[in-house]
Amino acid sequence: MALTAVSDFFLVYRDMDYRGLFIFFTVHAVYMLRACRGIKRCAAFIAALAVCFMPLYFLFDPVGAASAAYACFFACNLAVNVRMYNNTDNYFPRVNKKIILSGLTLFLCCDLSVLVFNLPRYFAVPGGVTQTAYIVMWVCYLSSQLLLSVSGFKYKTKNI
User: Fold this and answer.
1) Would the pTM of this model clear 0.90, i.e. be above it?
2) Most buried residue among 5, 34, 61, 110 by CB atoms closer than 10 A?
3) Rounded distance, CA 119 to CA 40, Å?
4) Residue 57 phi, psi (nearest 5)
């Protein structure tokens, strides 16, 4: 949560500063490590992904490179967590798996809304679309952060 707050500072108060996106890589790496059973293999995968995207920083503008790398990290994070959700072991209780996957799905909806909100920087988009995207972005973001922050609690399945 602390890394998310630091990343949000750069993204919100520094107007989409690429450093915020790079810090979000760490957030998604932590979520991936949490979902992986083989920590060494997952850590190696994360490191390889980061090394593969480093040249983008020098080939494109920093925000474009960070955005492309972030999208790939997020897709990998979502894939790893879907795999964890479908796994039948008891490493995570089923209710926690649902909360994590729901939080990441809302996070995805938030990121798609951020994309729509920023489209006017590159294309002509009606104002109502960006205003709606702005509202959806924050509703999904706050909901996702709430779910992801409580996903580590131990729940009694009778109550849920």
Assistant:
1) no
2) 110
3) 39
4) -60, -35
Instruction: Quote the strand ranges of the chain, DSSP E.
Output: none
pLDDT, tens digit (0-9, with 9 covering 90-100), for 106-129: 999 998 998 888 888 778 888 788
List the chain domain ranges.
Answer: 1-91, 92-155
Provide the token pair at 140. Answer: 């999904």
Q: Token pair of 64, please?
A: 């474009």
**Residue 104: closest CA among 148, 155, 134:** 148
Task: Kindly write down the DSSP assignment for every residue of 15-49, as one continuous string.
Answer: TS-HHHHHHHHHHHHHHHHHH-S-HHHHHHHHHHH
In 10 A of CB 66, how many CB atoms? 24
Q: By the 8 A CB rule, do 1 and 145 touch?
A: yes
